[in-house]
Amino acid sequence: MTTPTLLVLDADPLPRLGALAGRVRVEHTDEAHLAERLPAADVLLVWDFASHAVRGAWPGGGPRPRWVHTASAGVDHLLCPELAASDTVVTNARGIFDRPIAEYVAALVLAFAKDLPRTLELQRERSWRHRESRTVAGTRAVVVGSGPIGRAIAGTLTALGVRTALTGRTPRPGVHGPEELDRLLARADWVIAAAPLTESTHGMFDARRFGVMQPSAHFVNVGRGGLVVEDALAEALRRRWIAGAALDVFEEEPLSPDSPLWDLPGLVVSPHMSGDTVGWRDELGAQFVQLYELWEAGEPLPNVVDKQRGYVPGH
Amino acid sequence: MTTPTLLVLDADPLPRLGALAGRVRVEHTDEAHLAERLPAADVLLVWDFASHAVRGAWPGGGPRPRWVHTASAGVDHLLCPELAASDTVVTNARGIFDRPIAEYVAALVLAFAKDLPRTLELQRERSWRHRESRTVAGTRAVVVGSGPIGRAIAGTLTALGVRTALTGRTPRPGVHGPEELDRLLARADWVIAAAPLTESTHGMFDARRFGVMQPSAHFVNVGRGGLVVEDALAEALRRRWIAGAALDVFEEEPLSPDSPLWDLPGLVVSPHMSGDTVGWRDELGAQFVQLYELWEAGEPLPNVVDKQRGYVPGH
After folding, report:
1. Same-domain pairing of B103 and B213
2. Per the structure, how many domains does chain A have?
3. What is the DSSP string of chain A?
4. What is the ipTM of this complex?
5. Are residues B283 and B255 in the same domain?
């Protein structure tokens, strides 16, 4: 048996891979050389999860990796029709980001409720201005996306006393279907987008949906930028259709310094960092090693993406 | 039986008092006229909880209110030796602020963990700078103060997965005594001050105690300004003995525009608002009416302050 070739599309150092020394031939590539190297690889590790290069470089036919793993929860940056049609297995980093993102969402919800951004502004002005804030216990949230991240968000908000509804593509116990979304949005204090970016979720937060929300509602996107029609959100904030929003993900990342989003009233902009807590790269590396060892042994892999739906189907 | 006189030291409108119409003669006073009016009052309602005027105005002997209620959790602003020695009953607003303050503390802890103040700074600079943040689950907190507010804080942090120790004056199941404080401070990620201001807590957070804390620790004060030696905290932040702090209460309130605290690195300054959520005045008014009806009927009052200790003894 020949030593398999692991091709790594990377930008940053990759910890923990030394555990596979001698069992795999590791080759590193950048985006520019990806296409020419893909045919010779048995496994592709998309460590540079911000890259969309796989979509352009994936071979239409002929030799190709049998397995692609991405160090991210979302797989929208690599799925293309050719990859979806092939028998190549795609896995993701399911599980690593759940709790960090849930905490990040809780941080934003509480910051909005307690008017923390305004407090920091007033502090810069050395201005003592008492305001009343809101209690989050008893308020209502809708979390759009019922995968592990959405469920972790719902769990954390529920622990804070927020009455939280979860919506997903497939209604099931504890998860509302898409046809209930507008009704839930209309009475939510907090709307959290944590869905995978797929054909059916692309642009789902548009002018109509922001129009349905309460003027006191806040919107938070920790999913993918493409879930939101950014112009529609900007307009909704300017017209005060909703009270505020926080975006951690954007249609184009990094967000251009010229973007009007940076100083939109009521909008908190953060640089796609919600899931990235100290040690995350280490955890991602360890997770890949674990999956590799299963693959090497011919065992079934966890976290297998349904390439038609664009995510790992859940429970 | 004559109609009792209720003297209200107020600054803001007082909702719900209409419920007592016809059963009590309500007189309003400001700080300047408090001393002359106190002897004729049966009950004093300290609605202006920021006022320290009761301490100076309390009659040494002779006629005086039989009951004093303050629309606050802390009673440090009204207890004086003469009031403490008298048979006048003092009650407080125990219960109203517990959950709002607990949420406020959670907001600050999460904001620090997720580096939210820095995110807002970078947003103003239109600067996309990804950072790793911290997971709060699994970190350690010490909450100093084991009354209802401290317990609510501990409950909320525990719900977020934070390993939380509670300390108080009297050790009991679930509450560590003062002699364990330094040991707990030395390994805490979050130190929360939520104790009443009394002789034994005054200035307890001094240079030595900040020196005991970890360089990665954050300190939050939602109790009373006098718990903290402000110069010592400033020095601890400048020397990076601790990573950050948030003060909602100060030795002098409002904080002077000249105070060096406003732009101390790593310090979040807020205007004594942690417990004040929409509807709070209404709740305080309703709570007083409820207590008044018990008093009127000769029933025992809840929330009775131990005037020697300076707080309502707990469970």
Report:
1. yes
2. 2
3. -PPPEEEEE-SS--TTGGGGTTTSEEEEE-GGGHHHHGGG-SEEEE--TT--HHHHH--SSSS--SEEEESSS--TTT--HHHHHSS-EEE--TTSSHHHHHHHHHHHHHHHHTTHHHHHHHHHTT------B---TT-EEEEE--SHHHHHHHHHHHHTT-EEEEE-SS-BTTBB-GGGHHHHHTT-SEEEE-----TTTTT-B-HHHHHHS-TT-EEEE-S-GGGB-HHHHHHHHHTTSSSEEEES--SSSSPPTT-GGGG-TTEEE--S-TT-BTTHHHHHHHHHHHHHHHHHTTPPPSSB-BTTTTB----
4. 0.96
5. no
Question: pLDDT at position B277, please?
Answer: 96
Q: How far apart are CA B234 and CA B229, in angstroms?
A: 9
Q: Which of B108, B114, B277 sits opposite A132 (nearest CB)?
A: B277
Are the beta carbons of B255 and A128 separated by less than 8 Å? yes
Contacts of A268 in chain B (CB under 8 A): 119-120, 123
CB-based contact A111 B106, cutoff 8 Å: no
pLDDT digits (tens, 9 = 90+) for A226-245: 999 999 999 999 999 999 99
Q: Report CA-CA distances (Å) from A35 to A42, A50, A83, A307, B96.
A: 14, 17, 13, 21, 64
Q: Give me the CATH number covering residue B193.
A: 3.40.50.720
Structure tokens of A218?
């806040």
Label residue B11 by pLDDT band (50, 70, 90): confident
Same domain, B193 and B150: yes
Closest residue on chain A to B130 (Cα): A271
Contacts of B270 in chain A (CB under 8 A): 119, 123
Domain boundaries, position A165: 98-269
CB distance B275 to A126 below 8 Å: no
Within this chain, do residues A153 and A254 fall inside the same structural domain, yes or no?
yes
Specify the DSSP class assigned to residue B257. Answer: T
* Contact call for residues B102 and B152 (beta carbons, < 8 A): yes
The answer as to whether B314 is a domain residue is no
Judgement on whether residues B33 and B137 belong to the same structural domain of the protein = no
Q: Residue B313: inside a domain, yes or no?
A: no
Same domain, A146 and A160: yes
d(CA A257, CA A160): 36
The verdict on residue A39 lying in a domain is yes
The β-bridge partners of A122 are none
Same domain, B61 and B163: no
Contact: B271, A122; criterion CB under 8 Å: yes
Three-class SS state of B254? coil
Shortest distance, CA B128 to any CA of chain A (angstroms) = 6
The model carries a pTM of 0.97
Share of chain A above pLDDT 70, in %: 99
Domain-embedded: residue B29: yes
**Contact: A111, B116; criterion CB under 8 Å:** yes
**B139 & B153 share domain:** yes
Lookup: tokens for A104: 């990040």
